[in-house]
Amino acid sequence: MILLIYCLKKIALIGHALLNLLLDKAHHDCKIIYIPANHDEKIRDFLHYDFGHIQLERQYTHTTATGNKRLALHGDEFDDLITIHRFHNYLGDKGYDFLLFLNRWLHHIRRKLNKPYWSLATYLKQRVDKAHQAIARFRQAAITHAINNQVDGIICGHIHQPDLQYCDGIMYANCGDWVENCTLLTETYDGAIQLRHWTDTHCELIADSRSLFHQNKIQPLKKNAA
Fold it and tell me: Three-class SS string for the chain?
């Protein structure tokens, strides 16, 4: 089990029930890999420490049931490549926290009106060109990193933008986040990576790596035939 957690300091948003569940699994021979985020830089001083069945890593290469290698990391390693300076990153974090604050009140009002969850932060990101450009640069930096590390795919987070696709033959998977988008990545027993959205009633499938892989193989053949 690989964890990419938004911010340990905001652990109350995740819930003690989830933490207790993870600790219980760790004590029952479930190996847990915890990859700290940039918000938890102090925890990175303890990288490679093995706390029983919970292991801290900066990045970790996971081999799926089908033998594919997926490199998992948080993603702030690419900030310099997409020209996000530390000060701009700090301002972005504060602005994002404020959006989440507004989002919680908006969601509270919408629930009173029996309206479904709606993300203000996602709505704004989809309408800002520079945000689109930054996301595209981040995705390309992650794919290049995967190629340089000779793996089949890369799993990351950081930018709070859920995504699952193939680029240049490399699987790019971004878990999004649990606070704004309520998204997660899972692996099936036969090795497929799935992007899912947790709703108030069920866990909705957004994308499956097997279907995307076959689409990725078929599309170039159609273009060549034309």
Answer: CEEECCCHHHHHHCCHHHHHHHHHHHCCCCCEEEECCHHHHHHHHHCCCEECCEEECCEEEEECCCCCEEEEECCHHHCHHHCCCHHHHHHHHHHHHHHHHHHHHHHHHHHHCCCCCCCHHHHHHCCCHHHHHHHHHHHHHHHHHHHHCCCCEEEECCCCCCEEEEECCEEEEECCCCCCCCEEEEECCCCCEEEEEECCCCEEEEEEHHHHHHHHHHHHHHHHHC
pTM for the full predicted model: 0.76
Mean pLDDT by 10 residues, the chain (226 residues): 53 60 82 83 78 83 94 92 58 63 77 78 72 88 96 94 94 90 92 90 90 69 38
